[in-house]
Each structure stands twice: as structure tokens, then as C-alpha cells.
Write a structure and sequence with these properties.
about 160 residues, mainly alpha, two-stranded antiparallel sheet, copper ion transmembrane transporter activity, transmembrane
């Protein structure tokens, strides 16, 4: 019986109760958000507004980096020792340096994409809306060109 009572009480460390915060599992609207890490939380409208600006800029920057990745992929398919000596080296036959750089850019984009996904998983309606609008504005600014070659290798999947 004693063990059942101890399970129902809040957890304690050194005799002090731990303040357990609950994570939202449905969309909510409000200025109190914890985003990505425990120390990034908003308790005022000013900090909430700054968080929304950061989310907007980060999601637009993700679209810029994705455009850079696709353009680099297109460029690296035509690399020779004459037109890109930095990326093509005799030691790296077959353009493996270009593949390495492309992999690094892809890794950076994957990290950015997962951070955006985790930010959306805060389930705050404002954060969700700002990230979607930031992705759309970034796409409009950086990726909505009429370049057919870029559009051919473009992947509509938002997961990287």
C-alpha cells in the first residue's frame, strides 16, 4: 500500500518536489511556449513575438539552403577539373569531394528540417502558422524560379 501512495505523489529530488510540466498534445493558442529546449520558453508577449520572428526567419532560411543544395547538386553533376578545380581534385577521382560537400549541405538541411519539425511539435498555433508562412515565403523568394533543371531534381517531400 505504501508503494502505491508513493507512486501517486509527485517525484522528489533531495526532498524537494519536481515541477513536472506537461506537453500539449493538441493545438493551443497562447504566449506560453517552450520551444526545442527547456531554457527557450516565452512568458510575455514580447518574447513570444521574438520567438515567432526567429521561427519565420529560420524557416525561410531553410528554403534558401534547400535552393543552394539543389543548385549545387546540379552544378556538381557537370564538374570537371577545368571549371571547378577546388571541388575536383586528382586525388578524389569521380568528384567525391563534390559529393562530400553535397553531403554536408544535405546534413545541414536535414538538421534544420528536423528542428522545424520539432518546433511545430510544440503544438502552439502561432508557431505552426509562422513556420508554414515562413516556408511559403522562402519558397516564393528562393525556389519559385522557372529554372526547369532545378525543378526536375526538386523533391516535394518536406522531410529532407
Amino acid at each position: 500500500m505504501r508503494s502505491l501512495i508513493s507512486l501517486l505523489q509527485p517525484p522528489q529530488v533531495d526532498g524537494r518536489k519536481i515541477n513536472a510540466t506537461t506537453m500539449h498534445m493538441t493545438f493551443y493558442w497562447g504566449r506560453n511556449v517552450t520551444l526545442l529546449i527547456d531554457s527557450w520558453n516565452t512568458h510575455s508577449w514580447f518574447t513570444y513575438f521574438l520567438t515567432l520572428i526567429v521561427c519565420f526567419l529560420f524557416s525561410a532560411f531553410y528554403q534558401f539552403m534547400e535552393d543552394r543544395r539543389l543548385r549545387f547538386k546540379l552544378l556538381s553533376s557537370s564538374i570537371t577539373a577545368e571549371n571547378a578545380p577546388f571541388l575536383y581534385n586528382k586525388l578524389f577521382s569521380g568528384g567525391s569531394r563534390a559529393r562530400f560537400v553535397g553531403s554536408v549541405i544535405f546534413g545541414i538541411n536535414a538538421v534544420m528540417n528536423y528542428l522545424l519539425m520539432l518546433a511545430v511539435m510544440s503544438f502552439n498555433g502561432g508557431v505552426f502558422m509562422v513556420i508554414v508562412v515562413g516556408l511559403a515565403v522562402g519558397y516564393l523568394l528562393f525556389r519559385s524560379t522557372d529554372d526547369e533543371q532545378i525543378m526536375v531534381i526538386d523533391d516535394p517531400c518536406a522531410c529532407g
